[in-house]
Task: structure prediction
Amino acid sequence: MIRCLRTTLLLLTMMLILNGCAERNNELQKTNDEYQKVRLVMTANGTKIGIESLTANRFAKLVEEASGGNVYIEFYPNDELTGGNTNEAVRQITEGAVDLGAYVSGTMSLLDPRLEVATIPWSFSNYQEVRRIIDKTGGEYYAKILSEYGLVYLGSTHNAMRQLTSNRNPIRTPEDLQGMRIRVLGGEVYRLLFSTLGATPVPLGWSELNVAIRQGVIEGQENGFFLMRSGRLNEIQKYMTVWNYLYENYLFVINRKTFEQLEPKTQNLLREKMREACEWSRDYLEAEEKTIRVQFAADGLEIIDLTPEELNHFKKQVEPLREELKKKYGEEACRAFRIDMDKNI
Result:
């Protein structure tokens, strides 16, 4: 009975939201104010404290303040509008049932694999390098690909430079990974990389990870500092290897038909405030990671910084995989993200 009630409530919520979206044309009325009155619906799959949710909420606040309350963005985290179904949420954005969304490039690659090009292992050394590239040629590439699927690219912020933790043993060499059961995201890059290094990658939902580690089903996992703290993984893992092996980011998009219905003034407002929100969240995450690292070490997590020589052993072993991925995503994609090219653009 409770399950039926929950389902009924979810359906009623969806009907209200979709009805609001369908009536948008009536809401896009011109007034004597500087901005038209419009309500937009935004979704993401992260929790309320996830960096994409923090960014989305800041974006909504900036837009509302700058428009004098005329442009209002209603944000739903945890894929609430689709009962937790991320794939369905992405589909609804492309079809215009939901206006805006914030999802990692790995999730967005369900639309087009080329959107995952920035996750080719060891393509970037640090966050500053990533910022320069995405804010120039990388962002332009995202915009081009997303436009093919009825989406307008608004901005990008960090998910993380990803690190590795384990319970079984410290990890300094590829040999230390042999046979280790490591939780990974569903994207192919993660699975292929850890398989290449001799580990056993296990795709697993974030909500299941903590229990899986405690029960010994999973021995290790890879993630950024920020998300590890939110999951309190430092309390149940013994070792961390800092190797910045892969960069993952969130892409913020809006349905193109929705965007084109807006006045140019409102379109520019959304672009401008998204840039501000993304810059804020990038700064915030980078600063938080430094604080979190200190906290982790103080709590007893053994943190290992690989030397350049140690890191080269991993890079050498995955070089054939990097070449395979570069061919898959194509020359244009790799050039846009300056992969294996001079990063000072």
